[in-house]
Amino acid sequence: MTRLAQPPTTQAEVKPDLERVNHWIGGKRVAGTSGRKGPVYNPATGELAREVDFASVEEVDAAVKAATAAFPAWRATSLSRRTEILFRIRNLVDQHRADIAAFLTAEHGKVHTDAMGEVARGLENLEFATGVPHLLKGSFSEQVSGGIDVYQIRQPLGVAAGITPFNFPAMVPMWMFGNAIACGNTFVLKPSEKDPSASVYLGELLKEAGVPDGVFNVVHGDKVAVDAILEHPGIASVSFVGSTPVARHIYETGTRHGKRVQALGGAKNHMVVLPDADIDMAADAAVSAAYGSAGERCMAISVVVALGDVADPLVGAIEERLPKITIGPGHEESSEMGPLITREHRDKVASYLDSGVSQGATLRADGRQHVLFNESEGFFLGVSLLDNVTPEMECYRNEIFGPVLEVVRVPDYPSALELVNGNQYGNGTAIFTRDGGAARQYQFDAEVGMVGINVPIPVPVAYYSFGGWKASLFGDLHMYGPEGINFYTRSKVVTARWPDPGTSSVDLGFPRTR
Ligand code: NAD
Question: Which residues contact 393 (CB under 8 A, 6 or more apart)?
C-alpha cells in the first residue's frame, strides 16, 4: 500500500509545497471544508512547514458517524481476529519507527534519539494491547445459590475520543488507541494542532494492518473541535492529556455531557536529593531529566530540592555539566537538545528567568546567552539554572515547560516533604539517596502519582498505569495498562439459571441466596 503521508527525510523536504495535513475519517484522508486552518512550523528553522485543517462541528460529527457505523461490526469481531490485527499494528509501527520519529523531529523539534525513544515507549503500549484476550477475561462464580451462577464480563463503551498534547505526538495517542480498539471500541483522535502529521501516518499504518475503516479516525483542530467532541452525544468517553486548565475544562464539560473522562494535566516534578546521595549520579539524572526534550516533558524534573549540605556540591556538579550539552536541530546526530515548540512558548519560558531573578532567585546559567537563541530563526533556548528559588516565586508556582531547572534549598526532610506535598501538581517525583529506609518513607509520604527512587523520570512501563494526583489528573482511572482496560470497558454482571422442571414457584420476596 502507498501511504500518503510520507515522513520527511531531511529538514529541507519538510517545507517546499506547504503540504496540507488533512483529517483521517472512515479510513481515508479527508480534506477540511471548514475553511479554518493552522500553521505547523519547523521549530529548528522557524519556518512555516505545513498547514493543518481545523475541523468544524460538522466535520467532528462526520468522524463520530464513521466511528459509530464501524462500532457494531468491530465489537463483534472475535478476540482472536482483533489480536491478530493488533499484532500487525505492532509490527508495522516497529518497522516504521524511524519514519514516525522523522515526523516528530520535523514538527516537534525533538532530537532523533529522543523521538525514537518516544516511539519505543508508545510501542510498548501497543504490545500490551495485544494481550487483550487475557485482559478481558471476566470472572465466574458457580452455584451462588441453588442452580444459579453469576459472572462478570467487560464490554466496550462505543466511540472513545482522545485529545492529545504537542509534546508526545505519537506516544500519547498510542497510550490511548491501542487499548481502546483492543477492547472493541472505535476511536476519534484529536491530536495537537502543532504537530499533527504523525497521527495521520499512524492512521495509515492501522489501515494497512487491517483495522476496518471507521474504527480509527483523526480530526485536527482547536477548541472548536475539542468542544464538539465534549458535547457530542455519540461519544462515550474522552481521554485527555495536556495542560491543567484545559484538563479541568475537559473533565467538567465532558462529565456534564454524560461521558466517562480521564483528563491528565500539567506538572511540576520535584527531585529530592538527600545529603547521602551519590552526587554525580544525582547531577547526571537532574541534567538529563530537566533538559531532555528541551524540558517539554510532563515528567521532566523541573525542581531539584536540595537538603542541607548537599546543595553546594550538587549545584556545582549540575553547573559543570551544562556547557557540555549540545543544542541544535533535532535531525543532526550531534544534537542532544532541540528547539522549543513555538516562538511564543520559547519567549514565555525565557520570561521566567527575569521574573525569578526579580523575585530573588540566582541565575546560574542563562539560556538566552546561547548562540542559537540570538542568531537562529529557530525556536532555540539554551539551558538555564535558577538557584535559591522559593515557593512564593512565580517561576516556582507555574509550570514552565522548558529547559529551566530550579533549585530549592531546604534544611531537612520535613521541609522537603512540605514543599512537594504543598505543590498544586502531583504528577511525578524522585528521591535520590543511598538510604533504603528514607526512600521507603518518601514513597509512603509523597502525594504524587508516580515516584522514582534514584530514577528521575519514573514513567511506568505499559503493564502498569500512568497518572498523577491533584491538579495533574482529573478523573478516577489512570491511563494505559490495566486501568486503561478498565477505562475503555464497562462491567456487566450476569446472574443465570437454567430451567430445572419442578423447581420454580411464585415468590414475591426479594431474591435471597440462602
Ligand atoms: P494544551 O492543554 O495546550 O493542549 C492539549 C490539547 O488540548 C491539544 O490537542 C489542544 O488542541 C487542546 N486545547 C488547547 N487549548 C484548548 C482549549 N482552550 N479548549 C479546548 N481544547 C484545547 O497542552 P500542550 O501545550 O499541547 O501540552 C503541554 C501540556 O501538557 C503541559 O502542561 C504538560 O505538562 C501536559 N502534559 C501532561 C501529561 C501527563 O501525562 N500528565 C503528558 C504530556 C503533557
Answer: 355, 356, 359, 360, 361
CA of 192 to the centre of ligand 1 (A): 8
Q: Ligand 1, atom 17: nearest CA belongs to which residue?
A: 223
Closest atom of ligand 1 relative to the 166 alpha carbon: 26
State the 10-residue block means of pLDDT for the chain, 514 residues long: 56 56 98 97 97 98 99 98 98 98 98 98 98 97 95 98 98 98 99 98 98 98 98 98 98 98 98 98 98 98 98 98 98 98 98 98 98 98 98 98 98 98 98 98 98 98 98 98 98 95 89 80
- Give, using CA atoms, the residue closest to atom 30 of ligand 1: 242
Catalytic residue among 298, 327, 385, 431: 298
298 given a catalytic annotation: yes
- Domains of the chain in sequence order: 16-265+472-493 (3.40.605.10), 269-453 (3.40.309.10)
- 274 Cβ contact list (under 8 Å, min separation 6): 307, 310, 413, 431, 432, 433, 435, 438
Candidate of 107, 166, 174, 243 to mutate for ligand 1, largest count of ligand atoms within 8 Å of Cβ: 243
pTM exceeding the 0.90 threshold for the entire prediction: yes
Alpha helices in 168-324 (DSSP H): 171-182, 197-209, 223-231, 244-256, 279-291, 311-321
Task: Give the Cβ contact number of residue 496 at 10 Å.
Answer: 10
Among 53, 166, 470, say which to mutate for ligand 1: greatest number of ligand atoms within 8 Å of CB: 166
